[in-house]
Amino acid sequence: MNIAICGCGIGGISAAIFAQRLGFNVALFDQFEVPKPVGSGLVIQPVGLRVLEQLGAAKAALAKGAKGFRMLGHEAKSGRLVLDVSYGEKGGENFGLGIHRASLFGALMEVAEAEGIKVTGKHRVVSTDVNDQGRFLTFENGTSVGPFDLVIDTMGVGSPVSPLISKSLHYGAIWATVDWPDDCVLQYDCLQQRYRRASNMIGVLPIGTMPGENRRKAALFWSVPRTKIEQWQNSPIEEWRAEATNLWPELAPFTAQITDHSQMTPAVYSHGSLRKPFGDRILHIGDAAHRASPQLGQGANMALLDAAALMKCLKAFPLDQALSKYTKARRRHTNAYQAMSWAFTPMYQSNNRALPILRDYVLGPLSRIPPAPKVLSSLVKGTMINPMRGLPPM
């Protein structure tokens, strides 16, 4: 079977490796001249780590990332503990792996190159067509290629071939990668956040080291309404540093490293899912099929799970059945996390005044009463619902 994969991101590389091992002919296309990651830090949850183990990229990812055993969130003014999620025993086998996208990308590309997978760069797919022979791709430069038995769209939020119409979220964020200060009082095995109502949030995520470096890094993120990103870019950076440090004084050694707006990357988010993520010889996975707020830290994990589930189905079923089997296998897990993200996000990123009160004085205390801690832990790990219903276990 001839498979074309559009997009050399986390999902695209993973799908290519799995497909190559199944004996398929793989063509991997990317818009960049040289494939590269976009973004700052992320968290690979335990379900995602299982996929990395299958791919053979877990060892390299673990060497570069930072193990996190807890997620903590405090109300900035009162110091009230709002969020406390533990993966389990500190130093145990359950953790979230904070890692820079470049390091994760490098770990996957190392495996892909060892498998002999070639990436065709400077080929941005703009449309696809299908006939009796198969599906064809048309690129931005006007050239076309095909036919393929299957096209896998992993081009993310900006995919020009995905029919997904998503709802823009009011709040986005600005991200920066900074050094972890040597004299920092914060724990390096914990994601920590501070909130003022739901309209202000700042957080710091340990992400290990960058490719070719040994200095420990962190991802710094600041919540901001998408309509005010341009205003932030046009205001003095000193104003933002003062506001961020006032919200969380201990973060001064981090914010002091930001001396120019260009050091931070704006990100906007949307929410939505394709009810039917496949068509005639085409399948959309990852953000091309389902998008949500990053509040639950599941984005990269969803892409990894999609790639693994798809290849399990292609291995077990003929193509005319595999895509519908894949959709059925992933639907419950994807829909559940979409719903929970939609429910939880306004409590941390919105202009609502009532929800933060509910969060701080009701849900926060209840979350520490059994069995809530175990439920929250499984929610973050990605294991609350079988991520591949009806398929062989990871």
Automatic annotation (TrEMBL):
Q: Does the keyword Protease apply?
A: no
Q: Which InterPro entries match?
A: FAD-bd, FAD-dep_Monooxygenase_BioMet, FAD/NAD-bd_sf
Note the SUPFAM superfamilies from the entry: FAD/NAD(P)-binding domain
Task: Provide any one GO MF term from the record.
Answer: monooxygenase activity
- According to its UniProt entry, this protein's organism is Falsihalocynthiibacter arcticus
Keywords assigned by UniProt, alphabetized: FAD, Flavoprotein, Monooxygenase, Oxidoreductase, Plasmid
Q: What is this protein called?
A: Monooxygenase
Q: Looking at the record's lineage, which domain of life comes first? A: Bacteria
Concerning Pfam families, the annotation shows: FAD_binding_3
Q: Which cofactor does it need?
A: FAD
Q: Which residues form the FAD-binding domain?
A: 3-335
